[in-house]
Amino acid sequence: MKFRAKIVDAACLNHFTRVSTMIAKLAKTCTLRISPDKLNFVLSDKVASGGVSMWCELEQANFFSEFQMEGVSAENNEIYLELTSENLSRALKTAQNARALKVKLTNKHFPCLTVSIELLSVSSSSRVVTHDIPVKVIPRRLWRDLQEPTVPAADVSIYLPVLKTMKSVVEKMKNISNHLIIEANLNGELNLRIETELVSVTTHFKDLGNPPPASGHASQDHDPERMTEVHVDVRKLLQFLAGQQGNPAKATCNIVSNKMVHFDLLHEDVSLQYFIPALS
Amino acid sequence: MPLLTQPIPDESDYSLVASLDNVRNLSTILKAIHFREHATCFATKNGIKVTVENAKCVQANAFIQAGIFQEFTVQEESVTFRINLTVLLDCLSIFGSSPTPGTLTALRMCYQGYGYPLMLFLEEGGVVTVCKINTQEPEETLDFDFCSTNVINKIILQSEGLREAFSELDMTSEVLQITMSPDKPYFRLSTFGNAGSSHLDYPKDSDLMESFQCTQTQVNRYKISLLKPSTKALVLSCKVSIRTDNRGFLSLQYMIRNEDGQICFVEYYCCPDEEVPESES
């Protein structure tokens, strides 16, 4: 098992840092999946701990100038590492404005992801900062829990509004209730709603647009005004929204009635899928 | 305005209708008195008064005159209800608490009358939030009977002069002692905490002193825990009037200028701390 990669381009480096910051906000611990073409950050919570799952994917070629890896075996040319997301994002924060960044899988008494950052300096001498991030190598028999989640057939798909507005609304709603209802229809309308004994609050977003339905999907014959709803834990939705910086190029919300909500985001060339299960 | 397109009953069905182009002109003032969960609202044709009380010793009133609103109608002589202020503030700031340049949140507020919820329609950038907050039985509020004819001493200060003093109050002291006098030390704030006593004097001719009308020396103590919440109003205000009456009751009136340059007032009344006999302390 081998892995070493290098980033030299400043824009790629900053972008990679931003991705790691986002991951740290979305998941405390995550799995880094390394394959010859792609890097994935994976979270698949057990139902007991909330059941949120995340699948973030980036093409290694868009970030790394050098990328070498050798998986567990020739047939299973992949590596799965479990790490604390914040350790990676903290290490990468020192890489801002750095000249180069190297990532390497090492074994220093225990397996580590070694991040070496070559910093710019005024004098000719170069300075290198090295972070050893402890990782757990995930054995093959556990890989099947960490595969790309299958996207369920949604009852309604809708484009998301400006995430910043959505975040401030959800933040305030969280102060009032921990149970939030997301509802949307095929007429480009999305509502966020909370209801308690004391107060009911509904925020209406409209003219959001709906992505074209997947061919042959049943939802086409559905009344466009009819709302499909899902009840979720406010804190989980807020965690997802708080992790987003800037506005993604594309953001879709897919609702499976009373089952789950799936967010599909594209930030430049990084795709993020986030699944929040419905509260029963 | 998209707010008007909301399906709402006939205008005349409401005992109170108020609309505002900038919700922060209301929410900022209400935050200044938000030291308890519940508030009582009184609306008359002159505007809305919101009252919060604590321990039957302190009362804060925020006045939002009818002129602050773009539309303000009250059908009855007066409309009174009690509401959860924390929830009301969360609703009013649903689109964010800090101002974003170039965007304003508009508000339309309707109340049908006794037993009905308070309806809020908020709009920002085409996004509409509808809130329905249940109202409660209004409670009798305290009458401090603070009458200007009984005022003994009165000082008007620029708020910045008091801001630092209040934010650095020694909270280990149980009381804040206020001395107002026509003679030295004129105006003194004293605390008696674990680390010793501290006295802060304001000279009569200080630039911060806008007006000084003290006729008689008065030394009164007020529970510091009751006065501390008024710091919220103090930080927003530009001027503060400090008055004491013949019973030692304290009135603090804060003049607050909103984002549109209009003036609102927030007032705190506090009763003096009773003298505790030596043997008990």
From TrEMBL, chain A:
User: Could you name the domain of life of the organism this protein comes from?
Assistant: Eukaryota
Keyword field:
Cytoplasm, DNA damage, Nucleus
Q: Where in the cell is it found?
A: Cytoplasm, Cytosol; Nucleus
Please give the chief subcellular localization of this protein.
cytoplasm
Gene3D superfamilies this protein is in? 3.70.10.10
Coiled coil ranges (UniProt) are none
What biological-process terms (Gene Ontology) are attached?
A: cellular response to ionizing radiation; double-strand break repair via homologous recombination; embryo development ending in birth or egg hatching; meiotic DNA integrity checkpoint signaling; mitotic DNA replication checkpoint signaling; mitotic intra-S DNA damage checkpoint signaling; nucleotide-excision repair; response to UV
InterPro entries, A to Z: DNA_clamp_sf, HUS1, HUS1/Mec3
Q: Does the keyword DNA damage belong to this entry?
A: yes
Q: Which GO terms describe its cellular component?
A: checkpoint clamp complex; cytosol; nucleolus; site of double-strand break
Family named by the database record? Belongs to the HUS1 family.
Complex formation: Component of the toroidal 9-1-1 (RAD9-RAD1-HUS1) complex, composed of RAD9A, RAD1 and HUS1. The 9-1-1 complex associates with LIG1, POLB, FEN1, RAD17, HDAC1, RPA1 and RPA2. The 9-1-1 complex associates with the RAD17-RFC complex. HUS1 interacts with POLB, HDAC1, FEN1, PCNA and RAD9B. HUS1 does not interact with RAD17. Interacts with DNAJC7.
Q: What does this protein do?
A: Component of the 9-1-1 cell-cycle checkpoint response complex that plays a major role in DNA repair. The 9-1-1 complex is recruited to DNA lesion upon damage by the RAD17-replication factor C (RFC) clamp loader complex. Acts then as a sliding clamp platform on DNA for several proteins involved in long-patch base excision repair (LP-BER).
Name of the protein described by the UniProt record: Checkpoint protein
Native source organism of the sequence? Camelus dromedarius
TrEMBL record, chain B:
Q: Tell me which UniProt keywords the record has, alphabetically.
A: DNA damage, DNA repair, Nucleus
* SUPFAM superfamilies, sorted: DNA clamp
Which compartment or compartments is the protein found in? Answer: Nucleus
Q: Which GO terms describe its biological process?
A: cellular response to ionizing radiation; DNA damage checkpoint signaling; DNA repair; meiotic recombination checkpoint signaling
Cite the Gene3D superfamilies for this sequence. Answer: 3.70.10.10
The record describes its quaternary structure and partners as: Component of the toroidal 9-1-1 (RAD9-RAD1-HUS1) complex, composed of RAD9A, RAD1 and HUS1. The 9-1-1 complex associates with LIG1, POLB, FEN1, RAD17, HDAC1, RPA1 and RPA2. The 9-1-1 complex associates with the RAD17-RFC complex. RAD1 interacts with POLB, FEN1, HUS1, HUS1B, RAD9A and RAD9B. Interacts with DNAJC7. Interacts with RHNO1; interaction is direct.
The record describes the protein's role as:
Component of the 9-1-1 cell-cycle checkpoint response complex that plays a major role in DNA repair. The 9-1-1 complex is recruited to DNA lesion upon damage by the RAD17-replication factor C (RFC) clamp loader complex. Acts then as a sliding clamp platform on DNA for several proteins involved in long-patch base excision repair (LP-BER).
Q: Which family does it belong to?
A: Belongs to the rad1 family.
Q: What is this protein called?
A: Cell cycle checkpoint protein RAD1
